[in-house]
Each structure stands twice: as C-alpha cells, then as structure tokens.
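Course exercise 7: structure representation. Students receive a sequence record and must write out the corresponding structure in token form. The form below is the worked example handed out in class, using Nucleoid-associated protein RT717_18200 (110 residues). Read each field label carefully; the graders check that inputs and outputs are placed in the correct fields and that the protein name is recorded exactly as given.

STUDENT ID: A-19
EXERCISE PROTEIN: Nucleoid-associated protein RT717_18200
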Amino acid sequence: MFDMMKMMGKVKEVQDKMKAAQENLARIEVEGESGAGMVKAVVNGKKKLVSLDIDPSLLNDKDKEMLQDLVIAAVNMATEKADEKAKEEIKKSTEGVLPNIPGFDFGSMV
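STUDENT ANSWER:
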C-alpha cells in the first residue's frame, strides 16, 4: 500500500538536500586555462567567474584578438568543469534519498 506521508517526508528530505547542495555550489571552484597556462579562469559551481589571471607577456595591443580568444577558451573550460562538479554535488546530495527513477537525473536540475 502506498504511504503518502512517507512519500511526503521523502520529498521534504530531497528538498532540504537540494537546498544544501545548491548552497555548496558557491564554494566549489574549478580552473580552466588556455595558451599553455598563460590565461587562467576560475569559476564557481554556480558558473560565475571568480578570478582571471593573464600572463603579463600577453598584454600588448597587437595581441588583443589572441588574448580575447584565450580568455574565452579559459572561461569556457572552467565553466564546463564547474558544471560537471555541480552535477556531482547534486547527485551526491540526493543519493539514496529517492528510489532510482529511470530517466530522471537530479544532476540536470543544476
């Protein structure tokens, strides 16, 4: 027999764990780099750029376009890594709370 109260308790538990996981995402930081490390970008688990480091040798007018490309590449790499980490965090936080529902991925809720 289906126990509605038990199910509601599980839903509340999932909500609490999801909230905690979302709060943890701000503390996750990942780095992406391009140009053999000449440009480094750090993004948090909420996909916000938190720091950018550019090698001083790149700071001249003639290399402006190359620098822009390197920054974009580094930020995109860091954002992809942050997305992976965020999905791992959500999966870890909700693991074992609800039964495995085929086709339903809590990690995609990030």
